[in-house]
Design goal:
The protein is mainly β. The protein is built from one helix and 21 strands. The strands form four sheets. Strands 9, 10, 15, 16, 18, 19, 20 and 21 form an eight-stranded antiparallel sheet that branches. It is elongated and about 85 Å long.
C-alpha cells in the first residue's frame, strides 16, 4: 500500500513540475520589420574631372522614414554589371564616384537605406567624366596687340590656351568688342574677326561652333550645378554670339553649353563655359585695349559624348536668338 502511495506522490510531483514549466515559459516576440524608406525623388550628375563624377539627390516628399544612409549603384551604360558604393549618413545628399574612364557613359541610381532595408531606385541618370581646364582664361579686347582674344579648347597641341588672331582657325570661343558699346562672346564664325567666307585675315577658316541658347545664371563655379539629362545643341544654325550687355540678371557668373564640330566626320566635342562676373559688377574688366573677360571651361575630348559638365541649379533663364544666316558685317 505504501508503494502505491509513493508512486502516486512521485507522479503528482512530476505533473506539478510540468505545469510549472508550462506556466513559466515565455514565447519570444516576433521582430517588427524595418520600415522601408521611399526612393529618392531625383538624381543629378556633374563631371568633376576626367575620372570622377559627382552626384546629388533629393528625398521623396512626405516620407515618414528617416534614412540611415544611401547606396549608389552604377555601371557602364547598357551593362548588367553594377558596382555598389555605400554612402553613410542620413543627411548626406551628395557623393563622388572615382576611378572612372574619360568619355565612357555610366548609368547611376541611388537608394535610401534604413539600416539593412533599402528603398526602390531613384530615377536614373547617365553621365560621363570630362576634363576640367586648369585655371581661368583671360580673353582680351580685339584692340590688344599683345594678348589673345580667342580660346582654343579642342587643340591638336593638347590643353586649352588663349590664342591671338594669327591662330584664329584654332579658336573655339572668342571675345569680340569690335562694335562699340556692344561686346559679345561666342562662336568665332559669327564674330567680326572673319569675313563673309568665315575666314580670318590670314586666310584661316573659322571652326564651326554651335552654342545652346540657354544661359545658366548665378554660377560661381562649374561645381555649382548639375544635370539630369545630356547637354544639347541646336540641330542647325546654332552658331551665335551672346551680347554681353544683354545677358540675364545674375548675382555672379553665367554659363552656357557649346560644341565644336569636326568638319570631316561632322561630330562634336562638347564643353561648358563659365563667364565670370567681375568685382566691378560687370563681366568686363578694364577698358580699351586692356579690356578682357574671364572664362572657365570643362570639356569632353571624346566626340559626341554630351556630358561636358553640368547645368540646372537655380533658376535658368533662356535667351532665344535668331541665328544669323552668315557672319556679322565688319
Amino acid at each position: 500500500m505504501k508503494s502505491i502511495w509513493r508512486n502516486l506522490s512521485i507522479l503528482s510531483i512530476a505533473f506539478a513540475a510540468i505545469m510549472m514549466i508550462g506556466c513559466d515559459s515565455v514565447t519570444e516576440p516576433t521582430d517588427t520589420p524595418l520600415a522601408v524608406p521611399k526612393a529618392p525623388a531625383s538624381l543629378e550628375a556633374k563631371s568633376v574631372n576626367q575620372t570622377s563624377i559627382g552626384l546629388r539627390w533629393t528625398l521623396a516628399a512626405n516620407d515618414t522614414v528617416t534614412p540611415t544612409g544611401f547606396v549608389v549603384e552604377y555601371g557602364t551604360k547598357g551593362s548588367t554589371m553594377k558596382v555598389s558604393l555605400p554612402v553613410s549618413g542620413g543627411s548626406t545628399r551628395t557623393a563622388t564616384v572615382t576611378g572612372l574612364t574619360e568619355g565612357v557613359i555610366y548609368e547611376f541610381a541611388v537608394y535610401a537605406k534604413n539600416d539593412t532595408v533599402r528603398s526602390l531606385a531613384s530615377p536614373k541618370v547617365q553621365w560621363a567624366p570630362a576634363r576640367r581646364a586648369e585655371g581661368t582664361f583671360k580673353l582680351y579686347s580685339s584692340s590688344s596687340s599683345s594678348e589673345g582674344s580667342g580660346l582654343g579648347i579642342f587643340r591638336a597641341a593638347g590643353v586649352p590656351a588663349v590664342l591671338k588672331i594669327a591662330n584664329g582657325g584654332e579658336w573655339d570661343l572668342c571675345f569680340d568688342d569690335k562694335e562699340a558699346g556692344n561686346p559679345k562672346i561666342g562662336s568665332p564664325g559669327q564674330s567680326r574677326y572673319v569675313d563673309a567666307e568665315y575666314k580670318f585675315p590670314n586666310g584661316q577658316v573659322s571652326k564651326t561652333v554651335y552654342i545652346n541658347d540657354v544661359v545658366y545664371t548665378n554660377v560661381t563655379s562649374l561645381d555649382d550645378v548639375y544635370e539630369s539629362a545630356p547637354l544639347t545643341l541646336p540641330a542647325a544654325n546654332g552658331e551665335r554670339m551672346f551680347p554681353i550687355n544683354g545677358l540675364p540678371a545674375s548675382t555672379s557668373g553665367i554659363a552656357f553649353v557649346m560644341g565644336t564640330r569636326d568638319e570631316t566626320d561632322k561630330k562634336y566635342n562638347f564643353a561648358k563655359v563659365l563667364l565670370k562676373k567681375q568685382s566691378n559688377g560687370s563681366y568686363i574688366m578694364g577698358s580699351g585695349a586692356s579690356a578682357y573677360v574671364e572664362v572657365v571651361v570643362s570639356y569632353q575630348t571624346v566626340k559626341d559624348v554630351p556630358y561636358a559638365v553640368k547645368a540646372k541649379f537655380d533658376e535658368l533663364d533662356r535667351l532665344r536668338h535668331s541665328a544669323p544666316a552668315g557672319p556679322m558685317a565688319k
